[in-house]
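Appendix B.2, paired examples.
Example (i):
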Amino acid sequence: MAQQEKHTEIWDNCLQIISQIVEPQQYKVWFRPIRAVSFADSKLTLEVPSLYFQEYVESAFLDVLRMTLRRVIGEGAQLCYKVRPVQNQPAMRLAGQRAAAPVNPEVTVNTQPSANPSPFIYPGLHKIQINPRLNPTYCFANLVEGECNKMGVTAGENIASSPGKTVFNPLFIFGGPGLGKTHLAQAIGIAIKEKFPEQVVLYVTGNEFKTTYMHAVSVLNKLTDFMAYYMKLDVLIVDDIQDLLGHGCQNAFFNIFNYLHQSGKQLIFTSDRAPVDLQNFEERLLSRFKWGLSVQLSHPDYKTRLQMLRARAEREGVEIPEEVLDFLATRIKTNFRELEGALISLIAHASVERGRPMMELAASITETLVGEERTDIDMAKVQRSVCDYFNISREELVSKSRKRQIVQARQIAMYLSRNLISNCSLATIGQEIGGKDHATVLHACTTVSDLMATDKVFRKYVTDIEAMIAPAV
């Protein structure tokens, strides 16, 4: 056989093996476009459509390629790549778009910005212009900072000053609904765009990423373009990442994550649960979520709730009596979303029922949101619940014992007191739990928050006790 034909035979033999290992769709997308161009001294050279194509194949199928080449060529097998010249590639176009008559053999890639850019436009060699999909309302100026989100805001401001260059990469923000995860994530993206207009920022939900991936593979067969698009980003924000389910989708995201992280790009994720509690996620992804900083957003305390109501009323241009705002902040303790909903509803009713006292309107609105007033949560109830859960006495809880179980119970009692009791200072909490100072209480709260983000068993302790104290909180 002529030397110039040997490379074709070798690659055909490799493809026969690879087709039996990888999924049919992956084989069609990632191996069929490859062409062997030369073979010499145990070195096989393959021609690939683009640099991004090469990077993805090397990242996703390196073990498969290594094993296959050893079987076909031998132990000394080597693999080289050659990027296919642009003029040899067919022009890309969106689904349904008619092919234009060729003017010359050179392909032109359109990188003009549009109001609604498609994720299937090949980004080319220059910075792409896309709509970052950020809501300007969700900026730092409109974000109320409190003890419930202080860590996240501080990390976010650091990231905005040096995206991709801090230790907070990735930033994983988690917490229950309505606690401001989306607001914080988008505020970081908005601040980055303001300080670094050339940065390519994209906000996308986990479900949108999954749907677009499936569309790229199953409908448009444009997975190469999909991967290339995401690999051109400087900042990727994925909201509700717990929706990123499916092996193929997670595999694509894993490779995008690796490429961006290794390239010094910023990654920001939000979730309704801690990384350790995510279900049906590959371990390799979960481990990467923990590389940077995991921040939990907790229920806002009374002071933060009141501050948020004042700020929102001012943004709406409405004057609301302080006692009415105080009433709302006292009655609605769950999250920012319910607080905002109550305030907007109050403003709407007040504009219609002008003769009705505003406090009466507020009482009526909150009644439908929170129902009957719950028994106030106090320090005694928190301590009693913690003691019952761990089967210890209150004397042991407030003692100076350094036994691991007692220390953990004491720290959890401090953490829950701070988060569930309105207007309760760190000094007050410390005084009620063995005469500890405020620094000890703050350290305990930070320790509990960190352990909840990394220890599934410990997190269950806290959520179980919280449900005992206030099931509706």
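Example (ii):
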Amino acid sequence: MTSVLRRHLPLALGAAAGAALLLPAAAPAAFADPHETVTVDPTGRIAADGTVTLSGTYRCLGNSGPVFVSSSLAQKSPTVRHGIGGTRAVCDGAEHPWRNTGRPTPGALEQGTARVEATVMELRSQGGLPLPRFHAVRRQDVTLTED
């Protein structure tokens, strides 16, 4: 990883996540390749300490920068999302599993229905700055069950 990418990666991931939240629900499909997908398993796990685990599969094609599968949850308020980790992705056209784990603010999430957003996003360098390219986005309800 180049020093520029290392330095700007947290900022770029935050900006990309923020941009994804501002897009209308149908917008990502308009620019994603139809062969690129991300799925979310219908059940997520929540441990006694609040750690949440989400999983699914992804498929993406071609990349020139690092690619990640990120996920977030909304439960008590649709406008408050909690980031649940990120996994490095391989864009070789094959289907791969992903699994993200994170521990949001204590008490923020509980067992029951939650709204997940999973995103396959690449950071492409343009003019020396990493900018997001979305390969696939999925939004759906899941059930959080005790781990």
